[in-house]
Fold this sequence. Notes:
The structure holds two protein chains of two kinds.
Chain A: E1 19-28, E2 31-41, E3 46-50, H1 57-63, E4 72-81, E5 84-85, H2 91-97, E6 102-105, H3 119-130, H4 135-148, H5 154-158, H6 167-179, E7 185-189, H7 197-214, E8 217-221, H8 225-231, E9 234-239, E10 242-248, H9 249-254, H10 259-269, E11 281-293, E12 300-312, E13 316-320, H11 327-334, E14 342-347, E15 350-351, H12 357-364, E16 367-370, H13 384-391, H14 397-406, H15 423-436, E17 441-445, H16 453-470, E18 473-478, H17 481-487, E19 490-495, E20 498-504, H18 505-510, H19 515-522, E21 576-578, E22 584-585, H20 588-593, E23 611-612
Parallel strand pairs in A: 3-8, 3-9, 6-7, 7-8, 13-18, 13-19, 16-17, 17-18, 21-23
Antiparallel strand pairs in A: 1-2, 1-4, 4-5, 9-10, 11-12, 11-14, 14-15, 19-20, 20-22, 21-22
Chain B: H1 3-45, H2 71-80, H3 99-105, H4 107-134, H5 137-152, H6 155-166, H7 170-196, H8 200-207, H9 212-224, H10 226-248, H11 260-267, H12 277-305
Helix pairs in contact in B: 1-4, 1-12, 4-5, 4-7, 4-10, 5-7, 6-7, 7-9, 7-10, 8-9, 10-11, 10-12, 11-12
Amino acid sequence: MPSEAAPILPPPILPPPILSVRDLSVGFRGVPAVRDVSFDIAPGEIVGLTGDSGSGKSTLGLALLGLVRQPGRILGGSVMIEGVDLLRLPEAARRARRGSQIGLIVQNPRGSLSPLHTVGGQIRSVLRAHLKLSSVQAAARAVGLLRQLGLNDPERRAGSYPHEISGGMAQRVLIAMATGAGPRLLVADEPTSGLDVTIQAQFLDELARTSRAAGSAVLLMTQDLGIIANYCDRVLVMQDGRIVASDRTAAFFADPKDSYSRTLLSLAYAPPPVPPVAPAELLAVRGLSKHFRLRGSGKTLQAVDRVDLTIGRGETLGLVGESGSGKTTVGRCVLRLLDADAGEVVFEGKDLLRAMPRDLRVMRRRIQIVFQDPLDALDPRWTVSRILGEALLRPDPRRIAELLTLVGLDPAVARLRPRGLSAGAQQRVGIARAIAAEPALIVLDEPTSALTPMARVGIVALLRELQARLGMSYLFISHDLNTVEQLSHRVAVMYLGQIVELGTREQVFNAPRHPYAKALLAAHLAPDPSHRRVDGVQAAVLAGEIPSPIDLPPGCYLAGRCPVAIESCHTTQQPLYAFADGGQVRCTPAAVRAGVIQRQADPPGRVLSNTVAA
Amino acid sequence: MSDSAQIETALLDLDLQAHTARPVTDLLFRLGGAIVLASLVLMLVGPWITPFDVGRPSDDIMVPPPDLADLPHLLGQVFTGAPHDPIHWFGTDGAGLDVFSRVLAAPRADVAIAVGANLFSLITGSLIGLLAGTARTWLGALVMRISDLVQSFPVFITGMILVTLAGRSNATIVVTLALLYTPIYVRLTRSEVLTQRNRGFIDAARVLGKSEAFIALRHVLPNALAPAMIQASVTIGFAILMTAGLSFVGAGVRPPTPEWGLMIAAGADGIVQGEWWPSVFPGIAISITVFGYAAFGNGLERRHAK
């Protein structure tokens, strides 16, 4: 091990570092993408690498394996893995080390698995490529790896094809493949982007446990500062191909040295929005239900099940839940982009669901929507000015310029087409179009989840500013609990089409009462290293997988996974109990504990009414 | 295969795409574009720029094309402007007509019919496709079954019968081909409409209170047209082949119009006696043209996919 002093890092602790990178540079046709990067990772250490899109993180990650995307070239430097410089080795020796010494976990778990082979077979082939094993031994080891990673029934899972397993399981198969041959260094490139929060937490817990147990080094590339705060021991920040900050996690979050991290954290530390005092009711949704009939089988999928909610003027209601919880369907039903099966949507005193088409077209302008995919939401053939003009009753260049200024864009972009704008700017155009119709309510359907963290900060700040200035209400639909916390006054948690808990932001975030809300918030990774998930005892992890919304259990949908379930939970639908502090929780054990209801001697019959007043 | 090996393969694929595929397709695209352009120019001015009259028979019957060895000499004469006898570059046919002139004049018939038929079916087909994609499910299904029905007939034989029944004129050929090609555009437009209909900007327009008709014509149709336009280039090529084929079997353009299929048919008997030129040159012209339209369409598709 060369003992030259690391330029930016504190000297490594007792054991020599597993990975030691010195002055690594990668260029694409003379344009440098990674410039003079140096760092070390010690055994058992998890180092986070963050930075905006295009800062060179992924290029650096590939270069650590001695790989470069064409037409790139490694321009210089060294990548020492346990004392051997990978870049000085011949290609055959490098290939032997990939997989056995360095494991790689990439984004998009399902896309990284071959659809034509069983997952067990794919793990086996990795094992046999690097270890001297017979195929029987390899098969046994593959099953063992899956069992270690917490998959139930690993023998059967090993025989499944990638399309037969869930995204969370696919991600665990990838860990098994990456760690199977016992590599000393794991490079994980945005391993959890696109996963639900509870699965993300499970995955990262397993990754941290595996690497700590094996004493291997992990380089975790992510844009999510929540992941860094909760799992990483040290942080590296990249900007324009350079490492601009490198610090221990606690010190980093206490005082970020670089502008990128400071901007990202500014919003997390900004005071939450102040709710309006006693707002007049703007929207009341009562008993909203929507099911989809599935083709072929004739079964129905219950997407939304008797949802009740209200939004006051100037108020933001955050609607959170994992994928498939029905939150987007609620938004689309409120806009009547989907026709609900039952219930009513009273907006400004009129029932939208029963409005005549002519009235509806007028009423609709009062409720607007901002979509998840900003590019998809804008007609690619139209200029920004024409797109905004469509939203105005009378297209007026002055008003269009005013709208663009309002959302923080240069009025000159009016001449451009959507493709010529960045994703953040596209989303700003989408917001400008929504406010052009002068709505009283905007449904924000995951408006920030397709954006980079940097663009996300800008959009969240913009939405808060617009609400303060124009006074409209938001129905903010998101699975990203951080942005929900930054925007919402009240929060509703959905699980399998039902609202399981509804309360103020403080009630839900600080003291959730429904077991599902507890689990969801426990899996929430706040960008705050004071209660690190990796160091603490992981509380309230729900067992098993979400039941299929096609075959729902007869009682509480959570009963099968719930730590506090009692006998009657398995047989009886749970009503939404109104608590004394104004919160609503769909859980009998929680209501009993809070004294909202008396413990019943005999289990109550099927509850028909959806809400029971306290 | 280990995952690192998979990554390497993926990187290699990228590499291949970047370095080999693109230049070749780009070359083909440009070549195809040039051929398409040339055929359209000839369609407009072909009969006016021929060196010989395409309709008046002469006494120079079955003159073979000049020998390859003489070509430099003859070309020299042409370029220096030296006085010389008129040259039959592709020879003459049994009626003493100049084959080169007739090959140049033929696009007036072949290309015009193919382009006309395709414009016609592109317009009707995409409108019907828009209807099928936006209307109620049963109506859409009905339209699609009808177009299945039309497509289930063998194109060439149906075309032959229809043209013969309706009378051999250029107009009937155009209408027949248009009818046979419309289902292609219906199908393409409908499937694209079904995709576009679910895009965010459609919902955004709906939420702004726009009418369904406005949305269909202003947002859905313009965005759904690209595949049909690309298909048009390929289909025009096939329509040229079909027009020539119909006249070859005597169910198309009437003689003595200069037309590639008719020329091949007229010269076919001579081939066994070594008089190959009246048929082979128009055959080559068809091949080049059909190839050009196909290459151009293919290139357009790749560019669109990017």
